[in-house]
UniProtKB/TrEMBL annotation:
GO terms for molecular function: ATP binding; protein serine/threonine kinase activity. Residues 12-253 form the Protein kinase domain. This is Protein kinase domain-containing protein. It holds the Pfam family Pkinase. ATP binds at residue 41. SUPFAM superfamilies: Protein kinase-like (PK-like). Keywords: ATP-binding, Kinase, Nucleotide-binding, Serine/threonine-protein kinase, Transferase. The lineage of its organism: Eukaryota, Metazoa, Ecdysozoa, Nematoda, Chromadorea.
Length: 284
């Protein structure tokens, strides 16, 4: 946010809390001059170590670098919470959601940024209006990379969305975001994740093996094209995993009117309500 004054409060009116972390709180704010809304991350710098300051500078640098319609500046709430409040939700709607997420990731990857923490909590809406754009938020774990070069950048992410290569402590890069997109798409279609176990060691073993399936009856009404895209995203070998640009070109995404099912998925909505409730309990 560009400011003509060094005093933030002279230019922005701080509103309600949107979220919080260990050392920070995110609040909605309104630019007084234009009325434009933003999400401001307010950080208690007294608690930060020198390493934390480095991470903060990296996050700020990445946020300044990325200017895209699907990279979040403000929130109208979580995407997953909005879905369960809708009167109608179909496979075609899931296709539109993942398209916007993929567009933001493709842009990040084009600019050599890897998000590393794709999950429902970081998929927000631009406003509370119907059909509001999906925004990718929270670049606190994002890193800058050199093209398609892979290296060990450290263990980072959220358990159910971690890729096999991260869990194996192998060199990794942009494909980790695509794996997380595959997990998110699976959830968007049936309301529960592809990998799940109360025991984290067993969960990680599932992920490293790519051990997931499409149980009946909930997957019977999902088109083969949707499952094929998930399979291409949840490919254990990152070198064989589909890229964001390639995924955006599959007919299920770019020609959804003809390919994706438009049947209302009430069971998905019901499962997603339970999934959201479990997430909120874990966050607290």
């Amino acid at each position: 946010m560009n400011s003509t004054s060094t005093n933030f409060s002279d230019n922005y009116e701080v509103k309600e809390e949107l979220g919080k972390g260990a050392f920070s709180v995110v609040r909605r704010c309104v630019q007084k001059r234009t009325g434009m809304e933003f999400a401001a991350k307010i950080i208690n710098t007294k608690k930060l170590s020198a390493r934390d300051f480095q991470k903060l500078e990296r996050e700020a640098r990445i946020c300044r670098k990325l200017q895209h319609p699907n990279i979040g500046k403000v929130t109208g709430g979580e995407l997953f919470e909005d879905i369960v409040a809708r009167e109608f939700y179909s496979e075609a709607d899931a296709s539109h959601c993942i398209q916007q997420i993929l567009e933001s990731i493709a842009y990040c990857h084009l600019n050599n940024v890897v998000h590393r923490d794709l999950k429902p909590e970081n998929l927000l809406l631009a406003s509370k209006a119907k059909g509001a754009a999906v925004k990718l938020a929270d670049f606190g774990l994002a890193i800058e990379v050199q093209g398609d070069t892979e290296a060990w950048f450290g263990f980072a992410g959220t358990p159910g969305y971690l890729s096999p290569e991260v869990l194996k402590k192998d060199p990794y890069g942009k494909p980790v975001d695509i794996w997380a997109c595959g997990v998110i798409l699976y959830i968007l279609l049936v309301g529960y994740p592809p990998f799940w176990d109360e025991d984290q060691h067993r969960l990680y073993a599932q992920i490293k093996a790519g051990a997931y399936d499409y149980p009946s009856p909930e997957w019977d009404t999902v088109t083969p094209e949707a499952k094929n895209l998930i399979d291409n995203m949840l490919t254990v070998n990152p070198k064989k995993r589909i890229t964001a640009e390639q995924a955006l070109k599959v007919p299920w995404i770019c020609n959804r009117e003809r390919v994706a099912s438009v049947i209302h998925r009430q069971d998905t909505v019901d499962c997603l309500k339970k999934f959201n409730a479990r997430r909120k309990l874990k966050i607290k």
